[in-house]
Structures are given as C-alpha cells and as structure tokens.
Amino acid sequence: MDQKPYTDGTMVETLGIVLEEVTPERVVATMPVDHRTRQPFGLLHGGASVALAETVASIGAALNAGEGRTAVGMEINANHIRSKREGTVRAVATPAHIGRSTSVWEIRITDEEGQLICLSRCTLAFVDLK
C-alpha cells in the first residue's frame, strides 16, 4: 500500500507510524515504541498514543467525508490502560458514528500479544476543502 499521501513530511513519518489497512470502515496502523515515542521514564508516551489514535481516526473519517470535503479533529480522549517500554503497538480504528457533519471513531491500541494499551475515542468534523 502506498502510504505516502498520508505520511510524507508529517508527524506520522516522524513517529514511524506504518499504515497496514486503510478503508472507510477500518484503519489499522503500527507504531514502534522507541526513542521517538517514549517519555523520559522509558514508557510509551501518552501523547504518542494519542497521535497514533488521531492519525487512524482522521484518515478513516476523511475517507467518509465525501467529494470536496475532509475531516478535522474536534475532540479526542484516551484511557491509558497498560504501559509499554519497547516493541510495537497496533491501532485499529472503526467508526461508531458517521453523520452528515461529524463522525466518531473508536480506536483500540494493543501490543504484540493483543493486550489493550490504550482505548481512545475521536470526534471529527467534516469540512469543505475550499
């Protein structure tokens, strides 16, 4: 899959996020837990998890925005369930609601064993590209 339209020159590239699946119904991406994504105490930074969550939700919402429109974040929350020091996390975003002007996405971030690391919900507004 060519992820360049979503990643080149962005935070996605900086954090090492790799898109694995991109459809209007589901977006999946991985992110390394390394020097780019850890906080000073050696754990996965909550902000990195939120950046991963908003990335997959935004891409999915944009695919549902319609011709001449895109999606922008309005609100995001995250419950950090379990810490992680190294390895890779995987985010799976699925829509809970797709309306005319907004969409709400649930994002589950898990580790290699499938354990829940972070549970997030992101609300996005559909806006005209003009």
UniProtKB/TrEMBL annotation:
Organism, as annotated: Symbiobacterium terraclitae
The name this protein goes by in its record: Uncharacterized protein (TIGR00369 family)
Family to which this protein belongs: Belongs to the thioesterase PaaI family.
CDD domains xrefs: PaaI_thioesterase
InterPro entries listed in its UniProt record: HotDog_dom_sf, PAAI_dom, Thioestr_dom
The keyword Hydrolase is assigned to this record: yes
Pfam families in alphabetical order: 4HBT
Entry keyword set: Hydrolase
